[in-house]
Amino acid sequence: MDLIATALPALGEAFSLILQPQQLLYLTLGVLLGLSVGVFPGLGGIAGLSLVLPFIFGMDPVSGLALMVGLVAVVPTSDTFASVLMGIPGSSASQATVLDGFPLARKGEAARALAAAFVSSLFGGLLGATILTFFILIARPLVLAFALPEMLAVTVLGLAMVAILAGRIALKGVAAACLGLLIGTIGEAGHGGSLRMVPESWMLAATGSASFESYQYLSDGIKLVIVGLGIFAIPEIVSLLRQNQAIARGAQLGAGWAQGLRDWWANIWLSVRCSSIGVIVGVIPGLGGSVVDWIAYGHTVQTSKDRDGFGKGDIRGVIGPESSNNAKEGGGLVPTLIFGIPGSGSMAVFIGGLALLGYEAGPQLVQNNLDITYTVVWSLALANVLGAGLCIALSGPIARLTTIRFALLAPFLFMLISFAAFQSRQSLGDLVALFGIGLLGIFLRRFDWSRPAFLIGFVLSTQAENFSANAHQIASFKFKRGMEEGLGYIATPIVLVILALTVVSVFYGIRQSKQIRSEGEVATGAKRAPLIFLLALLAYVATAWINAFSIDLASDKIFPLTVASIGLVALVILLARMMLAGEDSELFADREAAGEDAEAPHSLWGTLAWFASLLVLTSLLGFILALALFMTTFFRLRAGLNWLWSLGLTAAGIAFICFLAGALNRDFPPGLLQNFVDLPWPL
Description:
This protein is mostly helical. It has helices at 2-18, 21-38, 44-56, 61-78, 80-85, 97-106, 110-145, 148-160, 162-165, 170-184, 210-219, 224-243, 257-266, 268-283, 292-302, 316-339, 345-356, 363-368, 370-399, 410-422, 428-446, 451-481, 483-490, 493-512, 528-549, 554-580, 596-599, 604-621, 623-638, 643-664, and strands at 187-188, 195-196. Strand 1 (187-188) and strand 2 form a beta hairpin.
């Protein structure tokens, strides 16, 4: 009763603050900014908050909060546009939406998928805020209960989703996840600083040379935005461009928002469960968006009686993840506000904004400013209503993009993903890494290796290594003091419950994996190409194993060595099976053997060469000059437009990207030309 007596006055004060016209105006402005940023893949909440921070200083605190919360709240909603329409994950929180959202768009049901996603996001955000209203008062002991062993157990649960997304051959999913984990370890180790998969001899090659720059780039690792865009965006763009038609087959828009609303209502209990998952996972610092959509997707599959449609365009595969990712934003506020521990990158910037407004995130905020805490929570809920309403209203017109011939959209998408990738480190190496990861994504897709499993592995790699290394260090110390104390540390009730859930997920996931096609149906072909690709993967994993084995510090070598060992075992078993199997075996899945890709009027390498030409021109001339030449040539030769249309669309694209860069205070990749000639911005 004391808790309720404390909460109700603060809640009433929060509502009186939120519903003032000035605060509603700033909240709406924040929502519009969030929608504008969120629709562009790879930018997300960090870029948006960084844009408004300079204007926060000196503002009325509640107005500033409304502006920031409005922006943060709708990014997980608006990033659905890219996931559904283009098959490009708008952010790490919308990766799972691609699996069924994009196939729905290709069936001509983009408006239906978008509407179901937005209604699910709206419901998730509101349910998350309702739960948090009461949960925030009792959250402190729960958050404190999650120490390193519990965090590691949740990370392992996220990796267990690989079992569900492995496809027809579970070993391929395991190997893909190991590959993602290993690529996530590239660079300096977090503990001892040892270099992994970075040849130290490069450093001695020549200071200032390209080799030294490569050394520096790899030593910092590869960023998530590059891997997400490379693994999903480039393969889908190249595949669609080869077809020479619209995204929606037959250029039909299909059912609209009313059908999406009916789909959500028919699956409302799924939405409730996934929203609850979103809140719970969001509360745990450092996990949040990196794992919650996969857990929700796995739960959606496991609790469904008919699973054949998943990966091919099942609306439940959109409703589950989208319900969880907006609810997760509310859950992420618990560690952010109560402990001052950012649950994500955007929450880290949000803490900085709070400081500019005169508030310090942490226990004092909840104790002394509970009304402000609730203002944040319910501003988040109201922003979800505004954002989802706008997105639903826009879903029909924006979904019409899927009916446009893709050759007219592809240059703009190449422009956007190159710009987004460059923002990760402001280096030309970002574009080289994007192309390399994109090439890997093309082959994973072609030979039916699970791209979702790879991405889960990469996303969870850093935290899995950190949690396991730290937990191992502390557990070793406690075991030296006594067996009982050691077991008490690693075998807490929460850990045991999460591990039980993991075992159940793996058991049922393996049983169900053959019914799920996360990449759709793939024909089988000749032995040669799939076998060469497997040997290439085997060579990389073996190299990673040798590299890890040569590291002196045990803390830096154990994780990559263990992962590489598991990957090697999986790949060797697959190799043995391939050597014994016939060409009609599903081991030799190859999209170039039959189907859309095999019958496409344009070749894979010829289409990929267009994107490669943009990167080569950028390295020589700089991004804007390269873009002008690339887009004009593409529209004229590949899309078959006349000179007037080609030049007009090129000018429009360059004007738009310059406006976006100017508004976000971003720069463009320079080329060799800029080393010799001093050119004005944006050149």
